[in-house]
Fold:
Amino acid sequence: MQKVLFKEVAKHKYMYLLVAPVLVYYILFAYLPMYGIVLAFKDFDYSKGITGSPWVGLKHFQEVIQYSDFWNAFNNTLIISLGRLIFEFPAPIILALLLNEVTRYRLKKFFQTVFTFPHFLSWVILGGIITNFLGDSGVFNQLLVSIGLEKRNLLVEPSSFRYLLFLTDTWREIGWGAILYLAAIAGINPELYEAAHVDGANRFQQLKAVTWPSIRYTASILFILAVGNAMNGGFDQIFNLYNSVVYDVADILDTYVYRYTFITGDSFSISTAVGLIKSIINFALLIGANYLVRYLGEEGVT
Structure:
């Protein structure tokens, strides 16, 4: 058995060499750090290290669920993640379908470039741009004043901050997300469109009968991944845009852990417990989304 295994590895050695860097990356940065999960069940002591710190069982889990700030961050994470699924997830699909209707090659590439470019800018840069744009003397408020309206600072308005998150993240990611759907559309057999056209189908009917069924599997897989990533909430974006005025509507579990660990410096064990709770919920959401997709007739990820 081992000889057969080694023979197969030797036969496909170049394929394994291509995969090796990815495996090393995930082992070093995804699997080995999982050892730190034990901090959630210990009273971490810097002098004793992880292995020497005493076990306390579920003490930190029982403690964290009594904090009102934790539940506020938990609820905000759910609300913001749900909003992202409702407002942001369909946006790349719609853009890909619209770009597919652009017949002029150069114009299509121009729009793809314009929509994709923001993805390559970090939220540190985009946060500065958005802050300046929406600031008291920014372009947004100058336009409001020029038409006779009062100035508004959307970054400190709890009622509008979440919608600002959805809008800016859609602007940044819509082009990048559309690439996957455009690739799926590019793989559709042109004869299907020709047959639909012969049958008298207009462009919208071709979209419903040919294009959408062909990219539905891609959409279902990305939906599963999006739901499985829901509890992450979007730390980079929120951290660079929020402030203490909007904590009640913008503080998510990741920003809560950051402040609790690195600003107040209270307990690594509490922070690890929160992170473990988040990971367990993400896993459950992933399984649930996969089950839902398969129940609706798609293949899912398993």
About this structure: The chain has a mean pLDDT of 87. The radius of gyration is 24 Å. The chain has two domains: 1-41, 58-296. Residues 217 and 298 are 7 Å apart (CA to CA).
